[in-house]
Amino acid sequence: MRITKISVDGLFGVFKYTIPFKLEDRITIIHGPNGSGKTALLRLLDGLFNSRPSELRAIPFNWFQVDFDNYSSIKVSKEKESEEDDQSRLKFALTANGGDPQIFFPKRLSRTNMEEGFPLGVIEQAIPGLERVGPSTWRLIGSGEILYLEDIFDRYSSVLPSIRLKQEKDPPWLRSLKKDVQVRFIQTQRLLSFSDISRSRRYDHPLSPAPVVENYSKDLAGQIRLKLTEYAELSQSLDRTFPARLVRENSHDRLADTELRHRFDALEEKRSRLTVAGFLDKESKDDFQVTEQMDDQTKGVFSVYVKDVEQKLGVFDDLLNKVDLLKKVVNQRFRYKQMDISKDEGFVFTTSSGQPLLPASLSSGEQHELVLLYEMLFKMPAEALILIDEPELSLHVAWQKQFLGDLQQITELSSFDVLLATHSPQIIHDRWDLTVELKGPVQ
Fold first, then answer.
1. Fewer CB within 10 Å: N-end or C-end of the chain?
2. Structural domain of residue 131, as residue ranges?
């Protein structure tokens, strides 16, 4: 199920927008001046589909609606339970097939939802800039914004120790919707993350940020190793049954001479790609060729062999295509350095003089580019909606102009939709047909 349109009324008390999605191109760009609500729209979608109700409560709006390609829609609105109540409650309403809406009022997280013994004092230690002003409330120094416990855990869960929460479950219809419509948010702060190891220890364990490029380098090495394990297990299974299948092989299963030669050559080309990509170790060159002089029995053996190897190497297809595109874009963009891939280390960078270079030593612009590419290629599920906030951060103007072309190649490979918020005309470049302008408040 795909989102076709989003609408909002009363955003920050003044804005009213309707944003139709560019479904054919799979990329929709929203642009407008600072303060027009671009990031807020992304946060509303993220809050709705990723169970972050505090995001929806924190952003002022009257109602926010998402329409889908099956003619259903979900509307989030705010209403007060009573005239005396100074806080609004959220109301979710799903309308489908012209029937009555299904309604849900999510409750706020409270101190009673948390495991016993969790020291609230760790919150101020882990999150600089917070001042506790009540039993379960904090003030954000600088802006003066008041944050409740729910807000703290929604916004800063990545830097807080792991904790068990007795959270309210969504109703079945809302769980089903979130399963069908997956939304992922690539935010502007994307270069640092906090160690899961430190979060899994004691509450008072110090939390240390780590460069995301290092985490993703390890992640890629892990993905390659998983595929190598799958490849080894499949190879073992096929090799074990090879004699029996060879005996059962008959003339109807044999490949014709031309097709056998073509498929054998294609396998050699794929082996070469896998070696260059860092998946397989380099082997000595085998000069064997499929020839017309081979007898029928030998051709039968090679027909079974070719089909087996195609199946084995096919394990790598999806990952290989993504790695090839990552290397292609990075090595076109980054100057005076080369990126290769290792099944043991992940990203391997060398300077033009042949010196090794750690991923964390790349410039901020290079790290932003690499993190964006990696997240889109390797971290996003197919058919999801990807939200990208300000992809132009730290990127050279030339890279900004090339970004949409890279993104189109990625969407073709990974089949997801993108909603992109930008200030940069260079990002848009010559694709103003993909844009929706946020023009400001209705007069």
1. C
2. 108-167
The DSSP result for 18-82, as a single string, is EEE--TTTTEEEEE-STTSSHHHHHHHHHHHHTT-HHHHHHS--SEEEEEETTS-EEEEEEEESS
Strands 385-389 and 417-422, by their bridges, are parallel
Q: Which of 271, 380, 272, 366 is nearest to 322 (CA)?
A: 380
Q: What is the pTM of this model?
A: 0.83
Examine the domain organization and report whether 312 and 422 are in the same domain: no
Mean pLDDT of 289-300: 70
Q: What is the tens place of the pLDDT at every residue in 147-203? A: 877 777 766 765 665 554 555 688 999 999 999 999 999 988 888 775 443 444 444
CA count, 13 A, side-chain hemisphere, 158 = 10
- Angle at 63 (CA atoms; ends 391, 24), nearest 5 degrees: 45
Both 330 and 349 in one domain: the answer is: yes
Residue 40 lies in a domain: yes
Mean pLDDT of the chain: 86
The answer to whether the CB of 362 falls within 8 A of the CB of 347 is no
